[in-house]
Amino acid sequence: MKTSHKIWMAVAALLLIGVYLVPIWSISMEAPQYPEGIGMNITINNIEGKQPNDLKNINGLNHYIGMKSIDPASIPELQVMPYIFAFLMVTGLIIAATGKRKLILFWLGVFILLAVAGLVDFYLWGYDYGHNLSPDAPIKVPGMTYQPPLLGSKQLLNINATSLPHIGFYFALLSMSIAGLVWWKSGDK
Amino acid sequence: MKKQTHSHRFWMLPAVVLLSITLFGCNGSNGNFSANTDAAQKVYVAPGELDEFYGFMSGGYNGQLGVYGIPSGRHIFTVPVFSQAAVNGYGYSEETKAMLNTSHGFVPWGDAHHPELSQTNGETDGRWIFINENNTPRVARIGLDEFKTQEIIEIPNSAGNHASAFVTPNTEYVSAATRFSIPMDADMSNMDVSIDSYKDTFRGTISFIKVSDEGKMNIDFQILMPGFDYDLSHAGKGPSDGWAFFTSYNSEQAHTLLEINASKNDKDFIAAINWRKAAEYVKEGKGKMMPGKHVRNYIDHEEGGIAKTETIDEVRVLDPRELEGIVYFLPTPKSPHGVDVDPTGQYIIAGGKLSTVIPVHSFDKMINAIENEDYEGEVLGIPVLKYDSILHGEVEDPGLGPLHTEFDGKGFAYTTAFISSEIVKWDIENTQVVDRIDTYYSPGHLMIPGGDSQKPDGKYLVALNKITKDRYLPTGPEMFHSAQLIDISGDKMQLLLDFPTEGEPHYAQGIKAEKVMERQKRFYKLEDNTHPYRATSEAQTRIERDGNEVHVYMTTIRSHFAPDNIEGIKVGDKVYFHVTNLEQDWDVPHGFAIKGANTSELLIMPGETLTLVWEPEQVGVFPFYCTDFCSALHQEMQGYVRVSPENSDPEIKYGIGQ
């Protein structure tokens, strides 16, 4: 690999710092009673309200339909994610330093696999929150479940929930693309 | 005192009275000429849109402060100030009742007249609004971050605190004065005097309340004045900054049938007070401390959020007969009412309510007259300047019964004429009337947003009328007062809107909405709650008995109380329900009321703790519930308290969801 390729591979790895700084995923909710919206962001190690008390207020709303309280401390994946990205960063930098082109593909494979696993995991949590409702819920609508959409919008009673990637996700995507491009370009003779 | 005679104006008086009767009789056009779509568009604030200005109108005899949107005229809030407000427990709850303490004990009612926004560099700044209480002299400070009364200070050695609460251009001071003079001697020892000794024993005081950067008020000094009635005030600004002007009437010093006996002199006075000089005297330790017991009540959220009362025993009094240069009298026709200083600070305008002209004094001329000692004499030791030496001009034909003047910042003044029921627009420089418009009926004060500051927003004018009669659907003998919104953006004034106002608005203030909106608190942060009886989570809820006092640490969140089943209370107990609202979202108050309580409900804002005291007198089970429709399951938000006989020994039990 040429020096420029090594530099670009290092850039791809270091871009993942961004994932630590900004949220990865966003779930925003709109309802007549919330003219300014209410919502939460998923960061590398936390779920937090878009406004300081949004998570508390979302949990307050959810208790009427018997949804479990969203408690970031009870989600082990949030504890693991910082290490996963640290692993990707360190290995990416090692690849950049050693310049072993084949490893890029392997690195990308692991990255994509982890990303897909992450989305599947996110879906499963959403499924659990949306379906596993308390039988004591004050509001029970026959046949109604409250799983938020994985991507896109969904009307849940009075609330329109929209789930979209946040900036952190695009940092990861950019990192992947650059690494892919480095692999491609460094193959040219 | 010296008699002043300008008897050629006296013939006007019967004519004034006669005219006022005829004007009331004929109902004229009723303003319908302007009820056109143009006016409708100007006041239409579409659903979901916001008004351009806040309007703060005193509630008069309701003791509160009304908040209105301008130009829509929508009544958007009422801030409880001097009267108990059962609507939310102000003056009833343990946290707020001390706000209504005075040196006369607890006073549940007040008469609120003149709101005044705090100013920085002569411009309204949206931090606070001050308002006076006329009956039991007090001044309140309301925080515009939370629209709540944060502090009330009593004015000692005063009665009828009418010329209040007007601020200096950087809110250094808020004014107060005696409308009713009172018996005063050197050490305030003999108040038991015959009323007809008025001229010998009665004195007035003008008070200057210092305002700290945080808003804390204290009475810096009082100026001892002749026993006249001091009516209204405005501080100087620009070149006249450092001065304040107070109208007086009853320079005759009558003590009975004032409507006749206090209307005799052809001229009364505006007292021009050099407050900056007075403040320097105070710094030098001049004047003397006199008895002047008064209280200061305040609520500080950082100190538990429970109103505290402190008592102050003395006050510094300056005697202008001994301390030169702090008070001058400006002769002013016929029992002047309002005194208003134009935005440039150069002209001092009096509303001589029985006068046929509006006198406009010049500040520069006043200073020259003082420097040249151009006096026409002295009244009770206070120099009286020569009328002709200080006069800028007289506005001829200003309407009958001119009272108050506000300004548009474009060189024009607007004066209400009570008797002829109109507003007269005139050019300040040449004192010529340029336009006039009828009002319905009999305006007292008027308000232009910023209209008494150095930077008026000369777009709208609100006439605050004293008589309503046929303007709204009739509501029996008693009705709300009527306000009228007038467009002053063009050469001709245009009537846009009638709207009813609560209580009796006297003065009002207006301010660009942004200046206030940006400061708004939406709720109180639970982590900042310092109330000694708070429960900031359900885990902290509990009941503690101390003799016959029982403290219930209770919480509310949609849609339940914790605890909601309480046993172990006995007849004869004094039960304190300390209710903390755990909500942390905008506009989610919860209410608390219990059957038979001899007090008002509580309306608890998110993050706040309020306390209701209940002394059950009957054995039984008593329900309590949330009074504010808080959520879909609001009707489920209820609980029970079991009350056992006085001589029983029930175990304290409480819980939720068992």
How does this structure look, described?
The complex is a heterodimer of chains A (189) and B (658). Chain A is of the alpha+beta class and 189 residues long. Chain A has six helices and five strands; from the N terminus they run ααβββαααββα. Chain A has a five-stranded antiparallel β-sheet with strand order 3-2-1-5-4. In chain A, helix 1 packs antiparallel against helix 4, helix 4 packs antiparallel against helix 5 and helix 5 packs antiparallel against helix 6. The longest helix of chain A is centred in the middle third of the chain and has 31 residues. The model of chain A has no long low-confidence stretch (mean pLDDT 94). In chain B, the strands form ten sheets. In chain B, strands 6, 7, 8, 9, 10, 11, 12, 13, 17 and 18 form a ten-stranded mixed β-sheet that branches. The N terminus of chain B is likely disordered. With 658 residues, chain B is mostly beta strands. Chain B has two domains: 511 residues, YVTN repeat-like/Quinoprotein amine dehydrogenase (Methylamine Dehydrogenase, Chain H), CATH 2.130.10; 129 residues, Cupredoxins -  blue copper proteins (Immunoglobulin-like), CATH 2.60.40. At the A-B interface, helix 3 of A face loops of B.
Helix and strand topology:
The complex is a heterodimer of chains A (189) and B (658).
Chain A: H1 3-14, H2 17-21, E1 25-31, E2 34-42, E3 47-49, H3 54-62, H4 77-98, H5 101-131, E4 152-156, E5 159-165, H6 167-186
Antiparallel strand pairs in A: 1-2, 1-5, 2-3, 4-5
Helix pairs in contact in A: 1-4, 1-6, 4-5, 5-6
Chain B: H1 12-25, H2 37-43, E1 53-58, E2 65-70, E3 75-79, E4 101-102, E5 105-106, E6 112-120, E7 123-133, E8 138-143, E9 148-154, E10 173-177, E11 182-183, H3 198-201, E12 202-211, E13 217-225, E14 229-235, E15 243-249, H4 258-261, E16 267-274, H5 275-283, E17 288-298, E18 308-318, E19 327-333, E20 336-341, E21 347-352, E22 357-362, H6 363-371, E23 375-379, E24 382-385, H7 387-390, E25 391-396, E26 402-407, E27 412-417, E28 422-427, E29 433-438, E30 443-447, E31 460-465, E32 481-487, E33 494-501, E34 508-512, H8 513-517, E35 542-546, E36 549-557, E37 560-562, E38 565-570, E39 574-581, E40 590-594, E41 602-604, E42 609-614, E43 620-625, E44 638-644, E45 653-655
Parallel strand pairs in B: 13-18, 36-39, 38-44
Antiparallel strand pairs in B: 1-2, 1-34, 2-3, 4-5, 6-7, 7-8, 8-9, 9-17, 10-12, 11-12, 12-13, 14-15, 15-16, 16-19, 17-18, 20-21, 21-22, 22-25, 23-24, 26-27, 27-28, 28-29, 30-31, 31-32, 32-33, 35-36, 36-37, 38-45, 39-42, 40-41, 40-43, 43-44
